[in-house]
Amino acid sequence: MKLRSKSTLLLVTSLILAGTLAACGSKEAATSPTGKPAASTVAKLDPVTLKIMFPGDPPANWSEVKGEMENRLTGSLNVKLNVVFIPWADVLQKRQVALSSAEDYDLIWDNNPYQNIAAGLYEPLDSFIDKYGPEIKSNRSAQLLEANKVNGKLYAVPLEVNFIRPWTFVIRKDIREKLGIAPIKSYDDLVKFMYAVKEKAPDITPYIPNGTEHTGLKMASMLDPKANLAAISNYPGLYTKGNDGKAYNIFDNMDPMIMKNFEQNHKFYQDMILAKDALILKNAEFAKGKAAVSTFNDFGVALSTRTSLEKSVPGASAEAFSLYDPSMKMSSTFKAGNFIAVPVVSKNKERAIQFVNWLNQKDNYDLLAYGIKGKNWEDSGEGLFKPIKESPYAGIPFAWGWNSKLDRIDASLPEDVIKLNKWQRDPNNFTTDILAGFTFDPSPVSNEIAQLSNVGKELYDPIVLGLIEPKEGLAKFKDKAYANVKKVQVEYQKQLDVYLASKKK
């Protein structure tokens, strides 16, 4: 069904639901997709201010967009917004402090909610979504909703537009053209470009990846897509492969492609292709004009990256090169990378879910994601938008509304990038991974995980980034980490076996 037709159906469904609630004596008001009162309304809701925690900094023009959101909410949900932005460097710590001290948040962004779910800090949402969230459900695939339940319950709304974890290399197009190098078509081309930069443009670092994020298992998996390699959460040294339901560690079962990747990165470091301080530098350096190549969590070049680069280096331009291809036969766990959760201490649980549902209505989602139509963006057809360069709005839908049915693709991106984005947003393009629906409970090995995390930062991250010779580094890492790696692996496998056995019943 076309998106416009579905929006009409959802509006009718919302009005029917509101009428049903009114017949039951509810105070809820029926609203249009923009949040304005519909023709048939019931008692007005009392005003509520929702306190919401988000990561990062407020986007440009945020106050204007927030004002328009509250204007639309007046007279319908009657909600004001107290949005607290926490810098990325502090968000993990401050989120845990807020939850443990029962601070009065109503909605919290969480990229890894399972520990907080296990601790009983997030409210189960199934009954609230069934009653107040028709658009929350209809704009998410059944695979996504099911795969992100814990013990059969949904504790946080999954926010995701991608059914794989996309990432891409972003390249200084102006430098490539200045050096007379043809467009990058393969990984070998990319490597040759980085070495040409070192030789002919020595004032810029050839390669600053986004830390270890893409240089480890993600890179190894792209060099051999059929192997289906994937890191197990953030536990250094543990991985899965082959979709066989087994957990492996790099000491007892080192996959050849993982080792090859470690060796390649070490060569980059020795040859001064990779930044010397790669452990602390991130992809923000690219936008400052400091790197010829970096890595980002997306296909194409984000508007914010393009804009920042052009401001930092007049005349500079960027392009993307991806190792992904729509012809790839890949599996997906359908696990979301972002969630919006309601703390158990919230006094406004119903209104919080009503608000999230409001965000999942087309016109409101457009405002949330792209800003004010005609000022910040233009409609470029079904599923597409064009940012207005003079007044861009880098929205934050990933933190409170993301879904693949309403999210638009930047029409100014190259056609091959648009094609990749469309491919990754269709759940039917991927087979279901054996790990889909499985959630590991880390509590039985929490001490081992904490120790492994510390040792991993000290000894594993330098291996991944190539800062030390791989065999030498692995020997030191094994000496300090093997016992903990093995304990976590055994516990992970134990829980996975129970889960897989339950699926066969």
TrEMBL record:
Alphabetized UniProt keyword annotations: Signal
One Pfam short name: DUF3502
First and last residue of the signal peptide: 1-22
Keyword Transferase included in the entry's annotation: no
Ranges of residues in domain DUF3502: 435-501
The keyword Transmembrane helix is assigned to this record: no
Protein name: DUF3502 domain-containing protein
Organism name: Paenibacillus allorhizoplanae
